[in-house]
Amino acid sequence: MYVLGIDGGGTTTSAVIADEHGKIYSQLIGGRSNPTAMSKEEFKKVIQDVLLNIQSQNPNVFNELAYCYAGMAGVGEGNYEGMLQHELQQYLPSKTEILLANDAVNALYSGTLGREGIVQIAGTGAITVGINEHHELFRTAGWGYIFDDEGSGYDLGIGVIKAVFKAFDGRGLATSLTKRLLSHFNVSSVPEIIEIVYGDEHPRSIIAPLGVYAVEEALSNDEIAQSIIQKACEDLFISIKACHSKMKLKDKETMVVLSGGVFLNADLFIPKLVELAKISHLNISFKKPLIPPVGGAIIAGLIALKVPISSVFVREFNNQYKSSHQLKKD
Fold first, then answer.
1. Is 187 a residue whose pLDDT tops 60?
2. What dotted CATH number matches 116-289?
């Protein structure tokens, strides 16, 4: 039983063909595919490239695909869902069933392996999604980078830029983030950053990667960076708490999976989130994903096909996924 899982976001797009035992037959990592942050033609080109590439790696298995589960950021907004459906139908075998969802479902199942729970994604953007035992989906936050996405890489990046300019003006405390940004943009003075941020590239693509400096400098005990992380945790927890309330879980213990680039150093965030949960008297636990989000897409496809997840799935999938990337590095 072959499933194509696609995990698309504001930074990268991952695609994998795997079976119910976790064996991988094709895989790739491409460019961003959030249609809200790119043109329609760019979005279509990414999807086409992904499908043609994944097909070329193993044409025989591709032609036997039973299911394609595409969890993509931003496709639920505007008319993007219909556009994605059309692109997939053009390139996939006619017998392949297709299901589209938010990429948050991939991330949730990467930690729960198909069980109910909540996922807090904090990558380029941020969104909180819960799925209960009846497979009902609940969402809070993630309504767009202009006025939402609190706790995301973009939001952290904005915090970093604000802190650096306030320090430059004398409106805020000095911070090691200044040195990091000057080095990142390869400039000698803070005002030079403005021209780059307001240049031709989409500001979100420029600002979101800066969030990593808030994490790294917080770990190095920079006071300003730590305050940025603390605020992010508080904002994220508000969304988690709201999602939990919508799900009406009462006292049942709920697993919250932390997914996305912001949580690469999850141990910085988990103690703060645990403390906020205690203050709110919520019976929730926080955990890291067990497999990459694209593996969660494979699991979602298998569940839709009513195929049980084998005990060796996680081990087999991770061994092949990691070894493949190691080969690329070598």
1. yes
2. 3.30.420.40
